[in-house]
Design a protein that fits this description.
Length: about 190
């Protein structure tokens, strides 16, 4: 904790959540870094999403159920945005409605803001808000990394809307090297 271990290339926290799966497009290499509820809490803490103390003593069976539901939400974000899945959108709609019913609207210095409950459903609630926020925003700049296996997703906010890679140093560089070798072989 405290150090950045999760990628932040998505341009929206709901895409950062999708990007907790590495090598999504290659079944033999895919790694899900959100292995359990604790990992979800680490991820939430990294982006200041919830108060970790509020969920500190979650019972194991509750934690397991919340973890499963959060992974389903994450996959629904990917499927709704990149596969236009109505089932995925319906799941997010359901979770969003439930999230609203569990939350309270509270005034801060700037505005009224939805606050997730300080209980084990807090992370799922906050993530449901993120997912709904992303889905109902302008998705024309939603992209998937050009690498054939990577599968990281992001909002392309580059001035010319021509961002091909999740990261220039990672997938960008590796694919440029690969292409260079392919060219020099022929
Ligand atoms: Zn990539």
């Amino acid at each position: 904790m405290g150090t950045t271990t999760y990628p932040r290339v998505g341009g929206h926290p709901a895409f950062d959540l999708v990007d907790t799966v590495h090598w999504r497009l290659d079944d033999t290499r895919a790694i899900d870094t959100l292995v359990d509820f604790d990992a979800v809490l680490d991820w939430c803490a990294e982006i200041d999403l919830i108060d970790r103390d509020a969920v500190a003593s979650t019972a194991p069976d509750v934690a397991a159920a919340e973890h499963t539901a959060i992974i389903a939400l994450r996959e629904a974000v990917y499927e709704a945005v990149f596969e236009d899945s109505p089932d995925a959108a319906a799941l997010i709609a359901r979770e969003h409605i439930e999230a609203l019913s569990r939350s309270s609207l509270e005034r801060d210095d700037v505005r009224w803001r939805w606050h997730p409950p300080a209980d084990p459903t807090g992370p799922r609630t906050a993530i449901a808000f993120l997912a709904h926020d992303l889905l109902t925003s302008d998705l024309r700049s939603a992209r998937r990394c050009g690498d054939e296996a990577c599968g990281w997703v992001y909002l392309d906010t580059s001035p010319r809307h021509n961002r091909i890679w999740c990261t220039a140093a990672g997938c960008g560089n590796r694919n440029r090297v690969k292409r260079h070798h392919a060219r020099s072989r022929t």
